[in-house]
């Protein structure tokens, strides 16, 4: 079925998130207690809530989005281009800009979103942060009352599972086994908060995020048995 989808109708995406504050001491007392309760089973007894706070970026209630990168195909006749762009800065602006993109350019019934583990992480995280920031959900993110087959999202992790729902394959591993140049040649997810808060290098994070978007598109092409993108076909806008 994925062979029948028009590539021009897919918005590929990836997000980078960090703890909402640089460190645990930035939280008020009530939020510290809520964090401790939220993470007690993940931490066990060996790790304190303060030390564990470096992982807060994976929870929408305690983290925030620092960049959303997207990519989309512009295929005309025999010319294929893949355009990549990113939203960064204040989180509310990031979310508003992304919402405007969805509402203005990817709002049709034919449009779908695609990411790696996006159904479990990126898309719910974006939706939750929009609600927290008082932003109306775009139609593509408003999934209330929709049946699973009505949800306009694709997920390369889900496609690779082939129904084996206990199975998880990282983006790095999947690109390796499919013969796709690895996007992970600089930093990994565990380093993003340090690069953001300590090194103050958002450009490095944007580059990392955009490489992931390109990798997801490459995986999708491989699943369709199509030629991978070459450097000249990728345009950063």
TrEMBL record:
InterPro entries: 3'-5'_exonuclease_PolB-like, RNaseH-like_sf, RNaseH_sf. Transmembrane segments: none annotated. Residues 61-224 form the Predicted 3'-5' exonuclease PolB-like domain. The keyword Hydrolase applies. This is 3'-5' exonuclease. It holds the Pfam family DNA_pol_B_exo2. Gene3D superfamilies: Ribonuclease H-like superfamily/Ribonuclease H. It comes from Flavobacterium proteolyticum. The keyword Hydrolase applies. One of its GO terms (molecular function) is exonuclease activity. Keywords: Exonuclease, Hydrolase, Nuclease.
